[in-house]
Amino acid sequence: MNSSQTHRTIDAIWRMESAKLIAGLTRMVRDVGLAEDLAQDALVIALERWPETGIPDNPGAWLMTTAKRRAIDFMRRSKLRDQKYVEVARTMDLYTEDDENLTLDGEIGDDLLRLIFMTCHPVLSQEARVALTLRLLCGLTTDEIARSFLTAESTVAQRIVRAKRTLNAEKVPFEVPTAEELKDRMSAVLEVIYLMFNEGYSATSGDQWVRPLLCQEALRLGRILAEIAPHEPEVHGLVALMEIQASRFSARVNASGEPLLLMDQNRAKWDQLLIRRGLAALERSRKLGQPLGPYSLQAAISACHAQASSEAETDWIRIAALYEALARKAPSLIVELNRAVALSMAFGPAFGLQIVDELNTEPSLKGYHLLPSVRGDLLTKLGRYDEARAEFERAASMTRNTRERELLLQRATECGLGTSK
Fold it and tell me: What is the value of pTM for the model shown?
């Protein structure tokens, strides 16, 4: 493995392990900013050593132990909590290359949930909570977070820095809150888990279309929340949405890892167990007797797809109506774009194109690659291939995901041949 390949592998390992590292270190040092710095130090050491020594059999454990050693060094240098240092040093297992059986701390899963609740504390604004948690839990860069929220990168960077300082200054505890405090933080926690799942479902950047481990972690945390807060309908709604979306994983890419659009997927590969679990969670949300919230509405949309044996048999009129309800409950330009797609499927591409053309004038969507991608698809269906090709090429120039770029360029090529999907 050459140096370039090693660095790509290390980057992939970091994306998988960084949240666990930061969560475990936060439990140890009780300072999320310091925990992130220590985790980054471990990454730098790995980048220096692994190209020469090779990647260890258990890279996550190697990174964790290296970071913990840095934490102990910091405690010693700072002369902080001397007794705490002694206790940690006495009980800690130090990793060596010969210790092949070392595993990460068994409480690491609980640490991730504690980290989410810590970073979603009410002392932070909603925007700061989400930005910080995406940074720590998903390993997204400030640029990637900014693109996700159609916000300036400098704004996101400032939010993250201030959020870490505030958590440290206010001494926010690293714990799952009591039942009385839980409700106040639930909205932000659900949004973070939702965005965490979405990043795994369609990676913002990198060489892979999906990050299954990130989705699995988000789904696991959602299931835990459903046990903690069984009377919160939107918790069940989010779990339902993630279960049904996760059911498509094996059909979303081909054997080469290339993305497959919904219309091209083999629905026989969709995981029926996950679909049943999702439908059951959606029913639990409905039985609580409250109007469907944004996550439950999205789950209902996914359920329409899951219950149809083909694209032709999908109830697109119902999906369009659900998007209409979602737009009233949680208005956003992204919801409008999805509603345009649903309307195009229900009533023809011209209906959808009218909405997309209106969205095309929105300044905040200027760098959003899915807008020209959707427009290209609608133009293709209308036989306007030259215009469609230009839209797909524009979308390809915007995306940071290698697989998605290849798919968009392929569609542009097809338009040049006068063909459509």
Answer: 0.73
